[in-house]
Amino acid sequence: MPSDRLDRELASQLDALDQAGTRKGAESVVVGVLALEGDRGPRVLLEGEGERAFLPMNSNGYLGLARHPEVVAAEERAARAFGTGPQAVRFISGTFAPHVELERRLAAFHGREAGMIYSSAYAAVMGILPPLIDDSTAVISDELNHSCIINAVRLAKPARKHVYPHFDLAGLEGALAEAAGSCRRAIVVTDGVFSMRGDHAPLAEILDLARRFDPRFPGNVAVVVDDSHGVGALGATGRGTEEVTDARADVLIATLGKALGVNGGYVVGSRTLVDFLREKSPFYVYSNPITPPEAAAAARALAVLDSDEGRRRIAHLRAMTRRFEAGLVELGWETLPGEHPVVPLLVRDTPRTRALALHLRERGVLATGLNHPVVPRGEEEIRFQLSADHTPADVDEVLSALACFPERPGRS
């Protein structure tokens, strides 16, 4: 077999992950979703667990829209009208009316001239940054930015790359000053909400620095924000980091696959930017778009978000987040309080993080243990993610499971 030596090398690398305790391992397979019932939010059934129901605290579906009847109905209608798939990339034959309508709605929601959808937010970042970066561009990036940003910058090969400490505005300023003498353009790129911690970028201050240095770069200083975890989950109307900081990025990237509950990614910005990306972004030009049914479902989800119902869901989500954070503090756990429904429980130790994740699962709670290299050493955590579908009883159930962990802080 010609791949036998390759397989042995790959197996050796997997063994090394096992030895380090950092292998993610087999994925849970969801075989059923149980609807909300009484004071209980949704539960899931897992392959191999029979009829035992699990409480999911590991979903990015912050608003609970994936099973919203209007969203599901919109997807079903579009499937009947247009079929299940686009059947080609968009410049050949893959653009359908739902794609165009969704892009129009996204641009309007964010107050931009134009919008453009991708197959995922990861593909959006990978497809947007390289065309904006050339051999005279400096890229300046927060050290905790998502993997998609890191890989997009590697793909782009800028003239200079600066990584500043998380939220360190002095570090950002120093990087801009250093690049000003040698680079024609600078791109400052940051997550809006940082997915491992739930904290959000100081966007207003970042933009102030960018505007101050802009005259020193003939090709401008552009600020690019990936707010995939922010849109729909942060701000009174769900407009994310821009809303809570009262600031507007030059290029805003986000996802349809988290709070909006569907699939895909998108960018909004100037008409010129979007027209350029339609010509030059390979992850758009050469990759199929999301399906027409997905686009119709996303447009309906966006309409729900931008309504009184959406604002009620956001308010309930915020209340459940506060309830959970307060419970963690009362139990003596370390967390990073904030408005966002990503709530990290900082364990700061890989074996203990693994043990706590297993303890929770044994008690019917699904939460994600994050170890190095996903997070830096010493910042290992259990990442909890609240949803508008969660109830006070759900929150209390998780807190009860945490209270009986043998290694809980202060427990003797």
Which keywords apply here?
7-stranded mixed beta sheet, Aspartate Aminotransferase, domain 2, 2 domains, 412 residues, 17% strand, single chain, alpha/beta, Aspartate Aminotransferase, domain 1, 15 helices, 4-stranded mixed beta sheet
Q: How does this model look, in words?
A:
By secondary structure, this protein is an alpha/beta fold. The chain has two domains: 22-56 and 311-403, Alpha-Beta Complex (Aspartate Aminotransferase, domain 1), CATH 3.90.1150; 69-305, Type I PLP-dependent aspartate aminotransferase-like (Major domain) (Aspartate Aminotransferase, domain 2). It is 43% helix and 17% strand. The protein has helices at residues 4-20, 69-82, 90-94, 97-110, 121-132, 147-156, 169-180, 203-213, 240-245, 271-280, 282-285, 292-305, 308-331, 350-362, 392-403; strands spanning 30-34, 43-46, 53-56, 114-118, 137-142, 160-164, 185-191, 221-226, 251-255, 265-269, 334-335, 342-346, 365-366, 368-370, 381-385. The chain has a seven-stranded mixed sheet with strand order 4-10-9-8-7-5-6, with helices on both faces. It has a four-stranded mixed sheet with strand order 1-2-3-13. A four-stranded antiparallel sheet has the order 11-12-15-14, with helices on one face. Helix 8 (203-213) links the parallel strand 7 (185-191) and strand 8. Helix 7 (169-180) runs parallel beside helix 8. The longest helix has 24 residues, at 308-331. The radius of gyration is 22 Å and the shape is globular.
